TrEMBL record, chain A:
The keyword Transmembrane helix applies. It is a multi-pass membrane protein. It comes from Ancylobacter crimeensis. Pfam families: BPD_transp_2. InterPro entries: ABC_transp_permease (IPR001851). The chain crosses the membrane at residues 19-38, 58-75, 106-125, 132-152, 172-198, 219-245, 257-276, 283-302, 308-327. This is ABC transporter permease. It is found in: Cell membrane. Keywords: Cell inner membrane, Cell membrane, Membrane, Transmembrane, Transmembrane helix, Transport. CDD domains: TM_PBP1_transp_AraH_like. Its main location: membrane.
Automatic annotation (TrEMBL), chain B:
Keywords: Cell membrane, Membrane, Transmembrane, Transmembrane helix. It holds the Pfam family BPD_transp_2. The lineage of its organism: Bacteria, Pseudomonadati, Pseudomonadota, Alphaproteobacteria, Hyphomicrobiales. The chain crosses the membrane at residues 31-50, 70-88, 95-114, 120-145, 152-177, 189-211, 243-264, 276-293, 300-318, 324-342. InterPro entries: ABC_transp_permease. It comes from Ancylobacter crimeensis. It is found in: Cell membrane. This is ABC transporter permease.
Length: 333, 350
């Protein structure tokens, strides 16, 4: 039961207690759903469940993006503005491609290249400033937060960018396989791949080591700086993917798309059990946290709870989630 | 940017990395290091603007700059104290809004209940506004100190909750009906040509400098941020002082909310917000407050608030697209902290 173990699955913990600790939030989720269903049965309708799953897939992607950097004791305040910037950049690239009369496939490629290019650029900036210059993640990403907002609003002139081609919207939003919408499929696929990367690759394990004890990681010979840069690029790339999916949904490049997403995604990850102290968390905590937040707001909407009250509830939930996590950790230790 | 400003004298907590570094500092750079880069940048900015645009030193523009600096300085002073103790306060923007709404509502209600008694209404409103700020600070502090939750997450939660409460009170509509005296004789009044807010900021700044240097609370805050374990061993009751920093931050944010309300003439849930929160952290960090805790002086933070305000003003006067302005702010902030970090590394090596 040693805390020295860097893995999120301490081998000494009795399996049953471990299950109880891990299942606490999923159980709370089911109870929450049932409570809302008691007020309004529509909560449990197939249409609403699919709706919840679809809404969750966006937030889950962003929470996963935050999780990888939170594992290394960082976070990305610039995630929201990155989403706005990618949305505007991709939409502009595709609109210009359509205007020039290019082949639809080429237009799609231009959009993806612009979107992911901007995301990777943002991640590289964050990673380089944090890892190479030694600036704290807070300041570095607060800086890129401002820069990305400036770029997003300047590129778009502050107005939505129209002219997103149908192929793009179909691929990232409208399409479905066996009745499951594209957004859910993409998020699920990314989740599985990211889970394998975090648990089965040397890179993934290195993130946990760095988060648990950065000095030990450096002494053990891990290329900490390179890994940090790669992780911030991974974070922004995931954010860019989510941004493309949201752009496909709205059908236009929106300079305000990111809004308060940075903090929402951090909150979802942390509520799910990702530790801001680093080294604990994964795809599971991100998805569960995103589900929790989405179900909560969906249920409150359906039971017609005032939007302002919802903000108060969400704030309280975030704090309660972290306190519970703290208690769980102490029981374990 | 200002590795020196904290290390010039013995004002940093004893035993921090800075006091060690200052001993090993080469003397050639001594003068620049002692003043810091910030005043140099500030003078360069002012001189450059004065040369290019006569509007810049027009009385209206200068009053405008001073007023906005005053608001930012007051919030940033509280933020700086929290950061020096090793925390964060993301809720300051929301507290500005809450204090504005609560004070306006209480004033309006009191004035309606006791017509003509403007003094009573003003006093009740001010007390309620400041009380709201203290309450949010108390919740923040208790969660951080007692429950051992990181300040980032706690204040992220209270930020959302506080904004929600402010919007609930107003339903998003500005609150009118506060005493005319509060607006005319306080908010929009000028003494010796300067707005009230400027005097309030100077008073707060003087008090904060005194608190930081001459009171046990101020010294303990440095000690807690510098090395919490060492502070415990030395007999400092950490929890009480941590709660104190968050309450101070809440109080100062509420004071800014009151000043803004008096100037605008109505209680608004849109005052403050994320922008004020981010700016207060930027002002503290550019002003040499270390996010690792234990280092920072409020007078330099005030200087950096002045710098940020003039920078925004200059970008406006130079007709730089307002949409592009955040890019400058972001780049300058990262550069300032990166310079600070590089300077620290060089010092450590010597």
């Amino acid at each position: 039961m040693s805390d020295i173990d860097a893995a999120p699955s301490p081998s000494g913990l009795p399996a049953l207690r471990r299950l109880a600790v891990q299942a606490a939030l999923p159980i709370a989720l089911v109870l929450l759903l049932l409570a809302f269903a008691a007020v309004d049965m529509r909560v449990l309708s197939l249409a609403n469940l699919l709706n919840i799953a679809q809404q969750t897939s966006y937030l889950a992607l962003f929470a996963m993006a935050q999780t990888v950097v939170i594992l290394t004791r960082g976070f990305d305040l610039a995630l929201g503005p990155t989403v706005s910037m990618v949305s505007v950049g991709a939409a502009l690239a595709m609109a210009s491609g359509v205007a020039a009369g290019y082949d639809p496939g080429l237009v799609l490629l231009m959009g993806l290249a612009a979107g992911f290019g901007l995301g990777i650029a943002c991640g590289t900036f964050n990673g380089a400033v944090i890892a190479l210059l030694g600036v704290s993640p807070f300041v570095a990403t607060l800086g890129s937060y401002n820069i990305a907002i400036g770029i997003a609003t300047t590129l778009s002139g502050g107005r939505p960018v129209q002219g997103v081609p149908d192929l793009f919207s179909h691929l990232f939003y409208g399409g479905s396989i066996a009745g499951i919408p594209a957004a859910i499929l993409i998020a699920a696929l990314v989740g599985i791949v990211l889970h394998l990367v975090l648990t089965r690759t040397v890179y993934g394990r290195a993130l946990y080591v760095i988060g648990t004890n950065p000095r030990a990681a450096a002494v053990a010979g891990l290329p900490v700086k390179a890994i940090l840069v790669a992780t911030y690029i991974l974070c922004s790339t995931l954010a860019a993917l989510g941004a493309l999916m949201m752009t496909a949904r709205t059908g236009s490049g929106e300079p305000n798309l990111g809004g308060s997403l940075s903090l929402q995604a951090i909150a979802a990850a942390v509520v799910g059990g990702t530790s801001l102290a680093g080294g604990r968390g994964g795809v599971g905590t991100a998805v569960v946290g995103a589900l929790f937040v989405t179900i909560l707001s969906n249920g409150m909407n359906l039971t017609r709870i005032d939007g302002y009250v919802q903000m108060v509830v969400l704030g309280a939930i975030v704090i309660a989630g972290v306190v519970l996590d703290r208690i769980r950790l102490e029981q374990r230790g | 940017m200002t590795p020196t400003t904290g290390a010039t004298t013995g004002t940093t907590a004893p035993g921090t990395a800075h006091s060690l570094a200052s001993a090993a500092r080469p003397h050639s750079l001594g003068l620049l290091r002692r003043i810091g880069f910030l005043p140099v940048l500030l003078v360069a900015l002012v001189a450059g603007m004065a040369a290019t645009d006569p509007q810049f030193y027009g009385p209206i523009n200068i009053l405008n700059i001073l007023r906005n600096t005053a608001f930012l300085t007051i919030v940033a002073c509280g933020q700086a104290m929290v950061i020096i103790a090793g925390g964060f306060d993301l809720s300051v923007g929301a507290v500005v809004a809450l204090a504005s709404v609560v004070s306006a509502k209480v004033m309006a209600v009191t004035l309606a209940a006791f017509p003509g008694s403007e003094g009573l209404a003003t006093a009740a409103g001010v007390a309620a506004g400041l009380g709201a700020g203290l309450a949010v600070g108390l919740v923040n502090g208790l969660c951080v100190a007692r429950l051992k939750v990181s300040g980032f997450i706690v204040t992220l939660g209270t930020m959302s909750a506080t904004t929600g409460v402010a919007l609930m009170i107003t339903s998003g509509i500005p609150v009118y009906g506060m005493p005319q005296g509060f607006v005319k004789e306080f908010g929009r009044a000028q003494f010796l040509g300067l707005p009230t807010a400027v005097y309030a900021a100077l008073l707060v700044l003087a008090l904060m400098v005194f608190i930081q240097r001459r009171t046990l609370f101020g010294r303990y805050v440095y000690a807690i941020g510098g090395n919490a374990d060492a502070a415990v061993v030395s007999g400092v009751s950490i929890n009480r002082h941590l709660v104190g920093t968050y309450m101070l931050s809440g109080l100062l944010a509420a004071l800014t909310g009151l000043l803004l309300t008096a100037q605008v003439g109505s209680g608004q849930a849109s005052l403050g917000g994320d922008r004020m929160m981010l700016q207060s952290i930027a002002a503290a960090v550019i002003g040499g407050v270390s996010l690792r805790g234990g280092i920072g002086r409020v007078e330099i933070v005030a200087l950096s608030a002045l710098f940020l305000t003039i920078l925004g003003n200059a970008l406006n006067l130079l007709h730089i697209d307002s949409r592009l302005q955040p890019v400058f702010l972001g780049a300058i902030m990262v550069a300032a902290v990166a310079l600070d970090e590089l300077g620290r590394r060089r010092n450590a090596r010597v």
